[in-house]
C-alpha cells in the first residue's frame, strides 16, 4: 500500500515515506555517476545521442535533489517544485532539439561500439531506477515528474542502442541524430505533462460549501 501520497490532493503535508526518500537518494547517486561516465563517452565517441542522454542524467539528478528537498511539504510547494522541474525538462528537450539540428549540418560518424556498450550500462541503470519508482507513478505532479524522468530515460537508452545498430548498418551519423531528436521530443512532451498537472494542482479550489450550493441550485432548476 502506497502511503506517501495519501494527502496528495490536499494542501496538508503528506505522511513521510522513508522508502520514497531512500529511492530518491539511490536514484540521485545513480544518475550523477551515469552523467559523468556518459558525457565522457559521448564526447569521445562523437555521439550526439549519448551526449543528450548524459545531459538528461544531469537534469534528472537536479530533479531528484529538488524532490528530496520538498518531500513532506504541502501540496502547493510540491506543485511549485514540479512546475520548476517541468520547465527544466522542457528546456532540456528544446536544447537537444536545437543542438541536434546544428549537428546535422556537420560531418563525422560516431563510434558505434562505444554507443552500444554505454547504452547497455545506461539502460540497466535507468531500468533499475524506473522499477524502484514505478509504484509512485500515480502520485502528485512532483512524484509523477520523477517517474516520467525515469521512464523517458529507459526509453531513450533503448533508442541509443537502436542508433548504434543503425550507425553500424548505414555507416552514417543519421541514426544517432534521429534518436537525439526522439529524445528531444520525449523531453518536450514530458515537460509539458508535468507543467499541466502542476498548474492544475495550483489552481484555487472552490470551497466545499460553494460546490454543494451550486449542485443544489442545479438540481432544483431541473
What can you see in these coordinates?
- With 222 residues, the protein is mostly helical.
- The protein has a single domain (18-202), classed as Alpha-lytic protease prodomain-like, CATH 1.20.1510.
- The chain contains seven helices and no strands.
- The protein has helices spanning 18-45, 48-70, 75-104, 112-133, 141-170, 174-202, 208-220.
- It is globular and about 55 Å long.
- Residues 1-15 have low confidence and may be disordered.
- Residues 24-200 form the Cation efflux protein transmembrane domain.
- Pfam families: Cation_efflux (PF01545).
Classified by CATH, the class is Mainly Alpha
Question: Which CATH architecture would you pick?
Answer: Up-down Bundle
Major sheet: size, sense and barrel closure?
Answer: none
- Please give the domain count: 1
* Rg value: 20 Å
Total count of strands? 0
**Helix/strand structural class:** mainly alpha
What helical percentage do the residues reach? over 70%
CATH topology: Alpha-lytic protease prodomain-like
Name the quaternary structure. single chain
**What do the pLDDT scores average to?**
75
Q: What portion of the residues fall into strands of 2 or more residues?
A: under 5%
- SS element count, helices: 7
The ordered H/E elements are HHHHHHH
Which term fits the overall shape? globular
- What is the end-to-end distance? 42 Å
Ranges where pLDDT stays below 50 over 5 or more residues in a row are 1-15
Transmembrane segments: 24-45, 57-77, 89-109, 115-134, 154-171, 177-196
InterPro entries: Cation_efflux_TM, Cation_efflux_TMD_sf, CDF/SLC30A
Keywords: Ion transport, Membrane, Transmembrane, Transmembrane helix, Transport, Zinc, Zinc transport
Domain Cation efflux protein transmembrane: 24-200
Amino acid at each position: 500500500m502506497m502511503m506517501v501520497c495519501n494527502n496528495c490532493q490536499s494542501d496538508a503535508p503528506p505522511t513521510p515515506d522513508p522508502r520514497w526518500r531512500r529511492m530518491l537518494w539511490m536514484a540521485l547517486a545513480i544518475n550523477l555517476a551515469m552523467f559523468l561516465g556518459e558525457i565522457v563517452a559521448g564526447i569521445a565517441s562523437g555521439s550526439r545521442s549519448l551526449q543528450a542522454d548524459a545531459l538528461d542524467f544531469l537534469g534528472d539528478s537536479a530533479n531528484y535533489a529538488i524532490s528530496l528537498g520538498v518531500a513532506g511539504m504541502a501540496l502547493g510547494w510540491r506543485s511549485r517544485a514540479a512546475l520548476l522541474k517541468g520547465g527544466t525538462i522542457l528546456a532540456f528537450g528544446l536544447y537537444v532539439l536545437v543542438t541536434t539540428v546544428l549537428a546535422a549540418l556537420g560531418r563525422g560518424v560516431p563510434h558505434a561500439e562505444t554507443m552500444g556498450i554505454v547504452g547497455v550500462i545506461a539502460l540497466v541503470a535507468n531500468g533499475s531506477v524506473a522499477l524502484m519508482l514505478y509504484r509512485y507513478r500515480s502520485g502528485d505532479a512532483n512524484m509523477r515528474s520523477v517517474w516520467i524522468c525515469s521512464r523517458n530515460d529507459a526509453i531513450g537508452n533503448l533508442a541509443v542502442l537502436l542508433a548504434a545498430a543503425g550507425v553500424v548498418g548505414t555507416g552514417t551519423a543519421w541514426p544517432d541524430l534521429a534518436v537525439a531528436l526522439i529524445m528531444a521530443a520525449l523531453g518536450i512532451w514530458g515537460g509539458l505533462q508535468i507543467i499541466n498537472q502542476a498548474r492544475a494542482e495550483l489552481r484555487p479550489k472552490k470551497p466545499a460549501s460553494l460546490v454543494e450550493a451550486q449542485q443544489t441550485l442545479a438540481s432544483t432548476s431541473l
